[in-house]
Design brief:
Radius of gyration of chain A: 21 Å
Number of strands of chain C: 0
Number of domains of chain C: 2
Shape of chain C: globular
Largest interface: A-B, 84 and 69 residues
Distance between the termini of chain A: 62 Å
Number of domains of chain A: 1
Largest sheet of chain A: 2 strands, antiparallel
Oligomer: heterotrimer
Chains: A mainly alpha, B mainly alpha, C mainly alpha
CATH architecture of the largest domain in chain C: Up-down Bundle
Number of helices of chain A: 13
Radius of gyration of chain C: 21 Å
Order of helices and strands of chain A: HHHEEHHHHHHHHHH
CATH class of the largest domain in chain C: Mainly Alpha
CATH topology of the largest domain in chain C: Four Helix Bundle (Hemerythrin (Met), subunit A)
């Protein structure tokens, strides 16, 4: 440990944080543009060329907005909640490898902040503490809608966190390590999505629920809960909740890319390590586009169906996925894993279809 | 030494917390503040607010949290097992199947009891 | 003092302060938040001991699950924030004497324990502590029986929770 490395860590941390902030700003613009195109609208186009300065205008507007603290709110927690929400979103990528090792100003610099041997568990840990901001925001506002939204949101997050945690097991089994660097290295011959198609799908669905995105944006259901846990928030405090949601979208896309889609590795990365972050960014943008597409396409799921889906479908399926992956590993026949898991997945879908049809016929909703 | 591996995470944490605090501070600094009693009431879609703002919540959320703890512990047990499964081979698999099937019995019990139903 | 010792003392002071606030807060939700700070401090202790897995598991299980359950349970109760009764009764001095005795006794026993004098054998540099943990859990020579019994304990807790909270009339 030298002073040089401390400065290196500080610079890397600042780069990660401000990179995520820039990503957040332009993700909001991307989402509005893509949604507009899908809905045959134009979208923001006034602030700057193609609306490129729109995020800046939004930020300035939010800073100068009046902030309201409801009279009977718990003031300290009310102010702390947005801060508590945003911190996990910013630090979850601390263990992610953004690239290999590059040489800059004659120094060998590895393009990641930390390589923990418990990297995957670190991600689970940070994901699990991100519930607090929401539950505390809902409770401290002294508002019925906010309280209900906060509790619903937290119950939803813990329900889907199980499936999320189980979908991490597949890549760990295949690579034999919890370090994200090792997981990326183990995908050199073949991306893990080939062995873990169902695992990647479970991860994808569970993360949509974790970040409260459509079609799982129940806690923010405008029609019945006004705005859920952040009903009473305005100005910059509201902006922090908004920021946390979008930064988490970027973060989970980056984690999905790392666990299942080869991370920063792609063609020519071996010769030019500087391409690593570029490839990672490309994969992240593709996954983010998928998330926006899902939002534009699917309607919101009713809350009881959402919980039933998480507990009765996704969680058993994730357990089965771990089981069959382990069988494939032990028998040393990796090609068995996708066959078995996809068969189980299709079987589960058919079973749900049959039982739902029966429910529909008997009019028991 | 392993402890210093975590120092960069601590630095990232401090920078993130500082940034979030500055953002909240900026809003306090530049935002206008003209509170009126009506403005500070809880927002209930324009109706006059009635009753307490924080209510007791339904007991089934408690049950979801209990179920979550149990299976969260299971997931944490899975992780070190997953790291070494390649070396353990078939015995490791069988032992984990025993562990999980006991929990699955509990899961089926909860399911049959209707603890997973939301009406 | 080494930097590690300074970090240890700072974290210890914060953790102890938070622990006192847990019992002295009048607002139950605030008490739960102080408890989370205590649990986080313990996670930092695990990191100081180079036990990264336990630090992360502490955060996942205690902060991410058990403290959430506590907050849910607190929100089940009525009048969370309105406790105005006295926080100690007339027997407080007896409790103080008892806890002081207990503390002295424990310190005395611990100070005589041999484990503090003898340094533990350092772990092999090549061995990954995570692998050792995994093998210890499920290898037949390791802690297989406690590991399996843990699942029975978990199921018992589940059935208990359903019986207490979910018996339908």
């Amino acid at each position: 440990m030298t002073t040089g490395s401390v400065w290196e860590w500080i610079i890397k941390s600042v780069v990660i944080v401000f990179g995520l902030l820039t990503g957040f700003a332009y993700l909001t613009l991307l989402e509005r543009k893509v949604l507009a195109k899908i809905q045959v609208r134009i979208g923001p186009n006034r602030a700057g060329p193609m609306g490129l300065f729109q995020p800046l205008a939004d930020a300035i507007k939010l800073i100068f907005k009046e902030e309201i603290i409801p009279s009977r709110a718990d003031k300290i927690i009310f102010v702390l909640a947005p801060i508590i929400t945003v911190i996990p979103a910013l630090i979850i990528l601390g263990v992610l490898p953004f690239g290999g090792i590059i040489t800059l100003f004659g120094r060998q610099i590895s393009l990641s902040l930390a390589d923990l041997n418990v990297g995957v568990l670190y991600i689970t840990a940070i994901a699990s503490i991100s519930i607090y901001g929401i539950v505390l925001a809902g409770w401290s506002s002294n508002n019925k809608y906010a309280m209900l939204g906060g509790i619903r949101s937290s119950a939803q997050m813990i329900s889907y966190e199980l499936a999320l945690g189980l979908s991490f097991i597949g890549p760990i089994l295949l690579s034999g390590s919890m370090s994200l660097h090792d997981i990326v290295a183990a995908q050199k011959p073949l991306w893990f999505v080939v062995y873990q198609p169902v695992g990647a799908l479970i991860f994808w669905i569970a993360t949509l629920a974790e970040v409260n995105r459509a079609p799982f944006d129940m806690p923010e259901a405008e029609q019945e809960l006004t705005a859920g846990y952040h009903t009473e928030y305005s100005g910059m405090k509201f902006a922090l909740f908004f920021m946390a949601e979008y930064i988490k979208m970027i973060a989970v896309s980056a984690i999905a890319a790392t666990l299942f889609f080869g991370g920063y590795r792609f063609v020519l990365e071996d010769q030019y390590p500087i391409l690593g972050p570029v490839w990672l960014l490309g994969k992240v943008i593709v996954l983010l586009f998928g998330m926006i597409w899902v939002r534009a396409t699917l309607p919101r799921i009713r809350y009881d169906r959402l919980m039933a889906f998480g507990w009765k479908f996704l969680f058993p399926l994730a357990l089965a996925n771990v089981f069959f992956t382990a069988i494939g590993i032990v028998l040393e026949k990796l090609w068995l894993i996708p066959l078995l898991t996809i068969a189980v997945f299709l079987g589960a879908v058919v079973m749900v279809g049959i039982s739902e049809t029966r429910r529909w016929r008997s009019h028991v909703f | 030494m392993a402890f210093w591996d975590y120092l960069p995470i601590a630095i990232l944490f401090v920078i993130s917390a500082g940034l979030a605090a500055i953002a909240v501070g900026l809003g306090h600094l530049f935002g206008p503040r003209k509170p009126t009693p009506k403005k500070l009431e809880p927002y209930e879609s324009g109706m006059n607010p009635f009753g307490p703002g924080t209510r007791r919540m339904p007991v089934r959320f408690y049950l979801v949290a209990v179920l979550f703890i149990l299976f969260d512990i299971e997931v944490v047990f899975f992780l070190p097992w997953a790291v070494v499964l390649k070396d353990l081979g078939i015995t490791g698999l069988v032992e984990m199947i025993v562990f999980v099937s006991i929990l699955v019995v509990g899961f089926i019990y909860a399911w049959k009891k209707g603890a997973l139903e939301w009406e | 003092m080494t930097p590690l010792q300074i970090i240890f003392i700072i974290v210890a002071v914060i953790t102890l302060f938070a622990a006192i606030k847990v019992v002295s807060s009048r607002n139950l939700v605030h008490a739960a938040l102080w408890l989370i700070l205590v649990l986080f401090g313990i996670a930092v202790f695990f990191v100081i001991l180079s036990a990264g897995f336990f630090a992360a598991a502490q955060v996942v299980i205690y902060i991410g699950a058990i403290a959430i359950l506590m907050i849910f349970t607190i929100m089940l109760t009525r009048r969370v924030a309105r406790d105005s009764g006295a926080q100690h009764n007339s027997n407080w001095w007896a409790a103080a004497v008892l806890s002081l005795l207990l503390f002295t006794g424990l310190s005395w026993i611990l100070s005589r324990w041999q484990g503090f004098q003898s340094t533990a054998q350092p772990m092999l540099e090549s061995a990954d502590p995570l692998r050792q943990l995994g093998e210890g859990l499920v290898a037949p020579g390791g802690y297989l029986i406690p590991f399996e019994v843990a699942s029975i304990l978990l199921v018992a807790a589940l059935i208990g929770a359903i019986t207490v909270a979910w018996e339908r009339k």
